[in-house]
């Protein structure tokens, strides 16, 4: 008889199973489903990416294996981007590692830092990979700490329990799922907290470039001496709408970066060279006028969609406010989020129940505005038709 390893049994059940079944049933009945469930941009990558990709495909060796740590030109482009964007100086040889999307690096850092029974400190609500891919699949123990609306979903470091088995802490701002953003004073506190308790700060900054208005996401690596304790994960997925290309990077502490490279040599053969070339070109041209205008227009479109959806949700009595970053709307629906999502499915709208991100998300729903604007408008129209009527009464109460 085939039996799974114990760690597989410790993974949380797939809570979307019944929702997916209902979605399939609705689609079979001919219902037009609009999905605001997955953070996968509908906007196209910038033209500079696609043109560079075409050119790189014709380069000699483009079909061959890449280095799992990343080609030197890609790592140099990352280091130069950090210098211009955050005024952070990185050694591209020792402080930069290419990733098959930031998700891969976030999962693998658990293999680097956790022994059996070690603890990873995790935000709740937070991206499930921290608990599942990084911790449980490394035979570690997830130790959650709450992020609460009353504190603008910021960590209260004085209440986070740390013991001698605690090895790392994950932070993610701009946040998936809450859309909350970080300020420099919080990051300074986080770095000091890690120094005090001998922790590694694993900072997920994948949404750093998807911000609106005057807000610009900082990096903890801007803090003097932070690289002694910090590794940061970022990605071209949200920056350039390149989710399917699977290209990201980890930067910061040399020892953690070396560990990631060592793990990766055992399990992958790198990002395709032509993808790295396209990403390196985009990073290198990030501050050019043409690309900057294109990216700013993308941000304008996302912000417009968030505002449209937030306004529509307020019409049915929900307190919905568009965030300063990300394409997520995190809404307290005043009832079990999974039940609210079931009601949405009945009118052909897909969203994510908050409990997917931790127990503190049970009364929340995450909407991802990754559909064309006219479809987001249609979502608002559909939500206003939700039945039964007592659901509307519950959320208004």
Instruction: Report how far apart the termini are.
Output: 52 Å
Estimated radius of gyration: 21 Å
SS summary, helix count: 14
* CATH C-level name of the largest domain: Alpha Beta
Q: β content, as a range?
A: 5-15%
CATH architecture of the largest domain: 3-Layer(aba) Sandwich
What would you note in describing this structure?
- This protein is α/β, with parallel strands linked by helices and 397 residues long.
- The chain has two domains: 145 residues, Alpha-Beta Complex (Aspartate Aminotransferase, domain 1); 238 residues, 3-Layer(aba) Sandwich (Aspartate Aminotransferase, domain 2), CATH 3.40.640.
- Helix 7 links the parallel strand 5 and strand 6.
- The longest helix is centred in the last third of the chain and has 27 residues.
- The protein starts with 5 loop residues before the first helix and ends with a helix.
List the helices and strands and how they pair.
Elements: H1 6-10, H2 17-28, E1 34-35, H3 47-57, H4 72-86, E2 96-99, H5 102-113, E3 119-124, H6 128-135, E4 141-146, E5 166-172, H7 184-197, E6 200-204, E7 230-235, H8 236-239, E8 248-252, H9 254-267, H10 273-284, H11 289-315, E9 328-332, H12 337-346, E10 349-350, E11 352-353, E12 364-368, H13 373-383, H14 389-396
Parallel strand pairs: 1-10, 3-4, 3-5, 5-6, 6-7
Antiparallel strand pairs: 2-8, 7-8, 9-12, 11-12
